[in-house]
């Protein structure tokens, strides 16, 4: 079945460090890909998305590129801030199939000053 | 405008009792989803509504779980004869259309003692 695998956490970085959170997927069709973020004490929010190969999603300094050849959607940010501390979830949805989001297990990021 | 709301925010119940969890989606959103997040796990899909119909119930873990939606608005997730393994955060999401961006509520944390 469809699945998402993302790097295990937790990840701890210093402020202004470079961030990469790896995400790969398996899908029977052509999915749309998402990164969701859950800040402490808050609900899940969409961070960015990409709907076709080579699309780059970006928001708040975060970027991820839809790589069909490697079935990947890695999240990157050039300089993290303390306020980026959160749990990040990679997810896919299969257009034309079931409308559910399939999530990875989440990666907890802590950024220290 | 108002986002997705869920109630209660926290529920502690004894094993064997029934519980009802409520979701109020964003007004006008036709699609509604229930997910479950167990400790240390990703989000698991439970059920999807389009209007008041549930075309995909494939994620409901057992016949103790049921859900309904009325007036193309409020949805209730009912868990009968709760078990300790039902302890989790139950998240509701809504979207304006199928496979559109899903907006999540803050969740209901259910603890079965």
Outline the secondary-structure elements.
The complex is a heterodimer of chains A (113) and B (113).
Chain A: E1 3-6, E2 11-14, E3 19-21, E4 23-26, E5 31-38, E6 44-50, E7 56-59, E8 62-65, E9 75-77, E10 86-94, E11 101-103, E12 107-112
Chain B: E1 5-7, E2 10-13, E3 19-24, E4 31-37, E5 43-50, E6 53-56, E7 65-69, E8 75-79, E9 88-95, E10 103-104, E11 108-112
Parallel strand pairs in B: 2-11
Antiparallel strand pairs in B: 1-3, 3-8, 4-5, 4-9, 5-6, 7-8, 9-10, 9-11
Round the mean pLDDT of chain A to the nearest integer and report it: 93
Globular, elongated, flat, extended or rod-shaped: what is the shape of chain B?
Answer: globular
Q: Can you give the mean pLDDT of chain B?
A: 93
Largest sheet of chain B: 7 strands, mixed
Cα-atom radius of gyration of chain B: 13 Å
Structural class of chain B: mainly beta
Low-pLDDT segments of chain A: none
Low-confidence stretches of chain B: none
* First and last CA, distance of chain A: 41 Å
Order of helices and strands of chain A: EEEEEEEEEEEE
- H/I helix tally of chain B: 0
Quick description:
With 113 residues, chain A is mainly beta. Chain A is built from no helices and 12 strands.
Structure description:
The complex is a heterodimer of chains A (113) and B (113). Chain A has 113 residues and is mainly β. Chain A is 0% helix and 52% strand. Chain A contains no helices and twelve strands. In chain A, strands 2, 5, 6, 10, 11 and 12 form a six-stranded mixed sheet that branches. In chain A, strands 3-9-8-7 form a four-stranded antiparallel sheet, with no helix packed on it. In chain A, strands 1-4 form a two-stranded antiparallel ribbon. In chain A, a hairpin with a 6-residue loop joins strand 10 and strand 11. The radius of gyration of chain A is 14 Å and the shape is globular. Helices cover 0% and strands 50% of the residues of chain B. In chain B, strands 2, 4, 5, 6, 9, 10 and 11 form a seven-stranded mixed sheet that branches. In chain B, strands 1-3-8-7 form a four-stranded antiparallel sheet, with no helix packed on it. In chain B, strand 4 and strand 5 form a beta hairpin. Chain B has no helices and eleven strands. At the A-B interface, strand 6, strand 10 and strand 11 of A face strand 4, strand 5 and strand 10 of B.
């Amino acid at each position: 079945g469809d699945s998402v695998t993302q790097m295990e956490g937790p990840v701890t970085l210093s402020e202004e460090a470079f961030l990469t959170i790896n995400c790969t997927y398996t899908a029977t069709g052509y999915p749309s890909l998402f990164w969701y973020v859950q800040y402490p004490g808050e609900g899940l929010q969409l961070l960015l998305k990409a709907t076709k190969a080579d699309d780059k999603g970006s928001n708040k300094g975060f970027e991820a590129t839809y790589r069909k050849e490697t079935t990947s959607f890695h999240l990157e940010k050039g300089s993290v801030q303390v306020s980026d501390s959160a749990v990040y979830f990679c997810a896919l949805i299969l257009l034309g199939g079931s409308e559910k989001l399939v999530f990875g297990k989440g990666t907890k990021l802590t950024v220290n000053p | 405008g108002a986002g997705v709301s869920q109630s209660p925010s926290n529920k502690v119940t004894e094993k064997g009792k029934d519980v009802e969890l409520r979701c109020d989606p964003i007004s006008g959103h036709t699609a509604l989803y229930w997910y479950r997040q167990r400790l240390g796990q990703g989000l698991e899909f439970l059920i999807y509504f389009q209007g008041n119909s549930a075309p995909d119930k494939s994620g409901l873990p057992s016949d103790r779980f049921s859900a309904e939606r009325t007036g193309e608005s409020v949805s209730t997730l009912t868990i009968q004869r709760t078990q300790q393994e039902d302890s989790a955060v139950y998240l509701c999401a809504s979207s304006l259309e199928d496979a559109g961006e899903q907006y999540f509520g803050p969740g209901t944390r259910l603890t079965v003692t």
